[in-house]
Amino acid sequence: MESADAFFSPLCPVSFDPLARHYRWMECVLAGKKLQHCRTLFLNRVNGAQHVLIVGEGNGRFLIECRRKLPAARTTIVDASARMLRAARERLAQRGLDPERVEFVHADALAWKPEEQAFDLIVTHFFLDCFTPEELKQVIANLARAAAPGAAWLLADFQMPADGLRRCRARVIHAMMYAFFRFVTRLPARRLTPPDGFLKELNFVLLERRTIEWGLLHTDLWMRDGGYPLSLAAETSARSRSCNVMSPRIFPLGSSSNTTINAVDSISMD
Asked: What pTM was computed for the model?
């Protein structure tokens, strides 16, 4: 019998292909609209983006909203799963959105070499949590080379609350998630590595962070220091509203949470 270390060795590459057909309903059952809310919360703030890089997009839920909000932008989608890329293409066609300005790239983010300083918006939603610390540092450095001076970086992911029952609950959820994805996809990571330190080392500044779901989820707006070619839209009282996130669809072992956040406009949840 092969050992667990042998099963998760580099000779067995990570693949999210087995989840491509099931990811949408799994997300709906386990998280409702919470992950999509995190993905899209800051999208209205980057409405000046012209060259968008989305890495680890999966089945295309964020891509749909990105194309609706930034129809003139050129968008590059990079994903290591061929089936996820196919699902994203199909979703784009089903919504009647023009694929002319969208490029799909089947590549591993660790090996892919982007054009330097070619993008004014980088997006990595629920993707950076897939890597070990060493891999995460490499991935962020690789993507940072693609960021133009003043580029924005949208990032939504899981996190570990600081203390209390929230932290205990998050530890259980993290353990279950990583066990599942290691078994199904051969994910090498065993635990979450926060990307903040790596981003700061590469001159990215955190402009805003929102947390929901008892501190389990966060969504960030980062910007690269050294220039501001991308005009960020500011939230105003006329455009923003306060909303309560309360859903019976919860993560395992959780209970419905009631968290007040600021949401900019309304974004459909395709």
From this structure: 0.84
